[in-house]
Amino acid sequence: MKKMLVPLSIPVFFAAAIVAVLPRVRAADYWSPTGPPGTDAAVMKTLDQVEPRTVITALPFAITNPGSYYMTGHLAMTSDADGITIHTNDVLIDMKGFSLLGGNHRGVAIRADADLRNIAIRNGVLKDWDEGGIAANPVYDGQLQNVLSYDNGDTDYSDIVVGKGWLITACTSYSAGSNGIYAYAFCTLRDCSVLNSGAAGIRGEYECTILDCKVYGNAVAGIYAAEHCMVKGCMVTDNTADGIVGERRNRIEGNNCAKNGTGGTGAGIHATGDGNRIESNTLNQDQTGILVDGTNNLVIRNSAFGCVVEAFDISGDSRYGEVLKAQSLPAQFTNANPWANFEF
After folding, report:
1. Other beta carbons less than 10 A from residue 127's beta carbon
2. What's the domain range around 248?
3. Exposed end of the chain (fewer CB within 10 Å): N or C?
4. How far is residue 244's CA from residue 269's CA, in Å, rounded to a whole number?
5. Residue 2 lies in a domain
6. pLDDT tens-place string over residues 176-212
């Protein structure tokens, strides 16, 4: 039987002709050898060629060139000195889950020179550094992520210190000698935990945003907001003095403060200056629920339960919603004042 020949359509014919005459060119990629066998060009590209990075091999370690740096194991300091020092902009340090161990020597785990920019540190542990875990003030526009820092800093040194414009997420400071996390200005702290610090758990100086953090058992205030800061959605409990301190013109909203003032005095929230807005917070069994001894503050829509001394102690020229005692209200009630505070 004769085979039938199927005629090619004109477009398919020309396409086949073009492919036939074109030279065979292998698509460039990062993995294929680039030369004949037996030559250097035949070897696949190295990790440094694919993703250029530098290994931090021992302490002390000085970073003088911009770039990406990483660890491949735990590193320990054996004398008085800083562990890693950063002397240039645009540096990423990925600790990859490993630890920098200070051995209680005098020094900081990671220190950056003043006025640097674009420093990022992530994914590791800092432990037993007498002068703190991170010293980066004044350093601008940095990031700190997934860092656990504990037993760092004596009473003169905070654990984590950053300058302006830092983003700090999912970090923990435990048992710092002084403040746990100190943020100078324009910083955002989110989902951080600070426990058992020798001074304030978190201290934000100017225009800092502190969101969804957990602060427990610190020797002075749990959170200290100096000026134009926002503190929102935080759990602040069992601090020796005040839970949250607002100095001037801060917004303190939607926090849960419980059992603060374990040293005998203190408040869940304490407004020490003027212009603070304190709204929609929950106070549980603090020595005093909300204490206001500054002027021109606004206190609205808060609730306080079981406070030891007093639920609301508001003095000076401040404004506040009517305080309603829940025990005197029926189980189901209505209220014409949308700004009322509640005590029960």
Report:
1. 20
2. 111-343
3. N
4. 5
5. no
6. 999 999 999 999 999 999 999 999 999 999 999 999 9
